């Protein structure tokens, strides 16, 4: 594909065209790890938290190909709380923007309903309730986990706040294994784009976002 593009560039009088490949995504989804893998181990800063890549980093792959790592991008506002919780669960945003008990309730419900035995196996509890569970059930499940971990106050009252913090830490440490907090969108129809040769790439477009 790049060879064909370079040939077209030569016909347009563009000598030694440079191919810049921009790697873009939300924070903490593995952009730097991906680049490090394909760039044969060239060192980039990476960590399991948002905000590690502060500016653009350029990695020269060949004299004509450069990879560009970018800081994570996010919308200016989330459409709903679920999206915000999913991003926080993946360490893409800081959890401070969401009430911790609501975050724990939503995420523990999602894991319990979609990944059978993940909760039960990690905390050594039996089947809590038939799936799917609801908002109220999630707090009862957290209380059960508190009892199992012996997080109690005043003798036998479950310490739910401590259980919530323990659960949140387990989520961020990936102790439930490989979990996707979103499902792929089901594609119901497709459109066919014109062949690349029919597209005039020299025409400038107004890409201003109002």
Automatic annotation (TrEMBL):
InterPro entries the record matches = GTP-bd, GTP-bd_ortho_bundle_sf, P-loop_NTPase
User: Superkingdom of the source?
Assistant: Eukaryota
The answer to whether the entry has keyword Amino-acid biosynthesis is no
A single GO BP: translation
KW Hydrolase (keyword) present: no
Q: Per the database record, which ranges form the G domain?
A: 21-82
**Record Gene3D superfamilies:** 1.10.1580.10, P-loop containing nucleotide triphosphate hydrolases
Entry keywords, A to Z: GTP-binding, Nucleotide-binding
Q: Could you tell me what this protein is called?
A: G domain-containing protein
